[in-house]
Design a protein that fits this description.
The complex is a heterodimer.
Chain A: E1 24-28, H1 43-48, H2 54-66, E2 71-75, H3 85-94, E3 98-103, H4 110-115, E4 125-131, H5 137-140, H6 148-161, E5 166-172, H7 180-190, E6 196-200, H8 207-214, H9 218-234, E7 239-240, H10 245-261, E8 281-284, E9 289-291, E10 302-303, H11 309-315, H12 317-323, H13 350-357, H14 369-372
Parallel strand pairs in A: 1-2, 1-8, 2-3, 3-4, 4-5, 5-6, 6-7
Antiparallel strand pairs in A: 8-9, 9-10
Helix pairs in contact in A: 2-3, 9-10
Chain B: E1 5-8, E2 13-16, E3 22-26, E4 31-35, H1 37-45, E5 50-51, H2 52-62, H3 68-82, E6 87-89
Antiparallel strand pairs in B: 1-5, 1-6, 2-3, 3-4
Helix pairs in contact in B: 2-3
Chain lengths: 381, 94
């Protein structure tokens, strides 16, 4: 028997209750980078698009301010490679927003740290996130060019010593899983960070070519989840994750507990609801393309300066297609039809599915509890 | 004696939520306040400096079932709730 077809909604009409504008916008301010990392998810976009000039961004910040956008997350490429970065930050501040910066850390110098002291740059800064993928150069630099580790750690320490809000992001890859205890010791005990975030390398961007040496196997992902869970116990919950091995391990533990209680499902689960980010945030690529998420770069909602942000946010079929995944019951998907755990599942990340399969409306096997339990044909997660 | 005047803090953004009212956001404090439609009307009024009496008169004038006494109490409560992060003395904008 075929699964019940799901009606196709009018994708120019936003779901009920959608805010009039995004609360957060992720901005890839540049496609240039001083490194060439082996798992960079943005590598394909960096090769084929040009950076917007300062004035185009400043005009867009005014448009965002008019919609009462609250915060932006700046990334690249490498954001600190833009000589006008602080001029752009001042434009963000002038339009009543806060900001965060995602960086590889290698271009952070004493002069950069000093520049944060001007005006409200420090007051409005949520955090600078520096990528650290190993406790020492031999590991960190397996995914990055030589000398990256020393420069990134120097940048991280400069920010910390200046009292700026700084966090680290560890992207799990095949080179660093067993180094996790040393990484945690370095970041929390040695550098003195409040904690750090984790994720894992995805099969997109430069990892398409380097995937065999970068993207975790099922066994490595499970091992990373176990290690991170143990380290989080040791460090009092100071390791965070919204995706990747730790997030998956937490979700599976949540399902274990719910099943033990006899629950029939989890709140917000049972459909392709995923992270829900598209209901409050969106992204802009460095050429001005508006997209639902920087990891969904092919779903163009419009171009800043040419298409109004408010209309793109509410009426673009590209982003509404991601939002309306929430209406698709997992039980209607062929791969999930007879799964007893659909009431506990949110289907995984749509960007991962687009990258791996070129389709939005499928569930991610990496977050499949039935596979994890060994109850579905295929590798355990 | 010159009455104290108040106005909207210039750093605060306001997003209109239609029938639900409005949401104010102070990016310096990273703080949010939800306003009902009446609160939104007062917020709009505070685009220019206003005294407590002027705010109360606006409420009494636009909501006929509100007494002058209740309007003054509501205006005081509004300023108590929103000052100093969202509403500031007119000569003291951050």
């Amino acid at each position: 028997m075929n699964p019940e077809p799901v009606p196709v909604p009018d994708l120019t009409v936003p779901p009920a209750g959608l805010p009039r504008g995004p609360r957060t916008v992720d901005l890839s301010l540049t496609g240039r980078c001083n490194l060439k990392c082996r798992y960079c998810f943005y590598a394909d976009e960096m090769a084929g698009r040009n950076d917007l000039p300062t004035e185009r961004w400043l005009a867009f910040f005014e448009e965002m301010g008019g919609l009462a956008v609250q915060r932006v997350t700046i990334s690249g490429g490498e954001a600190f490679i833009r000589p006008d970065l602080f001029e752009l930050i001042d434009g963000i501040i002038a339009n009543k927003m806060r900001y965060a910066i995602l960086s590889n850390g290698t271009l952070i110098t004493p002069a950069v740290v000093e520049a944060f002291g001007v005006g409200k740059r420090r007051l409005r800064l949520d955090y600078v996130q520096v990528s650290i993928d190993g406790s020492r150069a031999e590991i960190h630099d397996q995914s990055r060019p030589p000398r990256s580790f020393d420069r990134a750690l120097t940048g991280l320490r400069l920010l910390k010593e200046a009292g700026l809000p700084v966090v680290a992001r560890v992207t799990l890859n095949r080179a660093n899983v067993e180094d996790l205890p040393n990484i945690a010791r370095l970041l929390i005990e040695d550098v003195g960070l409040a904690g750090f975030g984790t994720n894992d390398a995805e099969q997109m961007g430069s990892a398409r070519c380097n995937g065999e040496s970068m993207v975790l196997t099922s066994a490595e992902r499970q091992r990373a989840g176990e290690l991170l869970t143990g380290l989080n116990d040791k460090y009092g919950g100071r390791i965070s994750a919204s995706a990747g091995p730790l997030a998956i391990a937490r979700h599976f533990a949540e399902i274990d507990e719910a099943l033990a209680r006899g629950d029939k499902g989890l709140p917000g689960a049972g459909t392709l609801s995923s992270c829900g980010g598209v209901f409050s945030k969106m992204a802009v690529l460095h050429d001005g393309s508006m997209v639902p998420c920087s990891m969904l770069p092919t779903l163009t909602m419009g171009v800043i300066g040419l298409h109004p942000l408010a209309a793109a946010w509410r009426s673009s079929p590209a982003i509404n297609a991601v939002r309306y995944r929430r209406e698709i019951p997992l039980a209607s998907l062929p791969e999930c039809r007879d799964c007893p755990y659909t009431g506990f599942c949110r289907g995984g990340c749509p960007a991962s599915m687009m990258a791996r399969y070129g389709r939005l409306n499928v569930r991610d096997p990496l977050v499949c509890y039935r596979r994890y339990k060994g109850e579905e044909p295929g590798d355990a997660v | 004696m010159i009455a104290k005047t108040w106005r909207a803090n210039a750093v605060v953004s306001c997003v209109d939520e239609g029938e639900d009212g409005a949401m104010l956001y102070n990016p310096d404090k990273d703080d949010t306040v939800l306003l009902n439609p009446t609160g939104r009307a007062v917020w709009t009024l505070l685009a220019a400096p206003r005294t407590l009496d002027e705010i109360a008169a606006h409420l009494a004038g636009n909501w006929p079932d509100v007494t002058a006494e209740q309007a003054r109490k509501d205006a005081e409560q509004f300023l108590d709730a929103l000052a100093p992060d969202f509403v500031v003395p007119a000569a003291d904008e951050s």
